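Recall the central idea of this unit: under ordinary conditions, the amino acid sequence of a chain determines the structure it adopts. In this exercise we apply that idea directly, starting from the sequence alone.
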Amino acid sequence: MRRDIVHAGSGQLSYEIREIVAVAEDLKQLGVQITWENIGDPIAKGEMVPLWIKDIITKLVSDDKTYGYVSTRGVEETQKFLANHVNLRGGCQITKNDIVFFNGLGDAVAKIFGFLKREARVIGPSPAYSTHSSAEAAHSGYSHLTYELDPENNWMPDLTDIENKVKYNDAISGILIINPDNPTGAVYPREILEKIVDIARRYKLFVICDEIYAHIVYDDAGTVHLSEVIGDVPGIALRGISKEFPWPGARCGWIEVFNQDSYPMFKQYIKSIVNAKMLEVCSTSLPQYSIPLVMGNDKYLDHLSMRKKMFESRVDEAYEILTQTKALKIIKPKGAFYMAVLFAEGVLNNTQTLEIGDRRIREYIEEKVADVEVDKRFVYYLLGATGICVVPLTGFCCSRKGFRITLLETNDEKRRWTWQTIVNAVNHYVQS
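Accordingly, the structure predicted from this sequence is:
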């Protein structure tokens, strides 16, 4: 073509969580039965939406208004409901105009980074969640900037690392937090969040906090929302219903904007995001109407409590099984429904294998593992030998070697089989 039409950041769009699906689908065609541990979809893993939530949605489906457009920012009564929830926490106070709906948080993330000035960078955690890291890198055309999460300190952010990178790189305009974190399951205490906000205040930055798992936090780790610590710093919290109802197919997420009226430039930035939504007219209507009815229902808190206990028990179960091998290092997650599994230092190399009886599958895997990270090599061999599909930790913009599993499988026998099979595979792999 006479002009280069490819965006400068196109090479930064990488999503290992779904990219491995293509490999798994190829293996499926070769006869491998796949156990999907790569993606956080509770419905796909057998979780049932409570009947009382289904009843609310069924009634809404019968209401003609749920089939029409709604306001660009969202359904007004839902905006008011959510703003009131924020204000009841007693921190930063907002209005309905600070709530903006999107077609899932993927849409929100794309616009948050897509309408940021290209030279303005947002530093985020490593391991990173691919949606954020890829979007930020693509908007700038350069590799995503990261700060370290420390596995020796329960995956807490390295505050010194954050401040040093912010101090010596004046392109950094924002700090991204994921709390509870994906992929590590870490939950940040108030003190950590306050210190990150303080860095943002002193260097005149804004804060983005992905809080999609805010209500999946285990009993010994309290939830602290960005609104409670943001003070007078400009900020954005990302929320949604996909993991909480759970209803991932609804594609319903929203942002809560803090202190936009205090910072004209930040307000203009938020306005550009809203204007971009105006081009689409609105976000999905039906799930927006459901939010006050579901979250305001007397049964909702019990629903959240039951799910917390369910995932916490699975953490204990996974920890007990995965710690059977010294080749793995496990830091217990405190929230969300993921576990980042680290390999012990030095146990991996680029010659290890697992036995694969089918020649076609073995040759396919051998071709795939040429010149890949050592943890990705294990993940491919695990997939070929057992059908278990996990995500390599190096796929999360991270130099540490390991993999991520989910805590979503509802079949108790299959769940325990999955983790025990991983342990057995690790033991055979490191001894090969």
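The longest helix spans residues 300-322.
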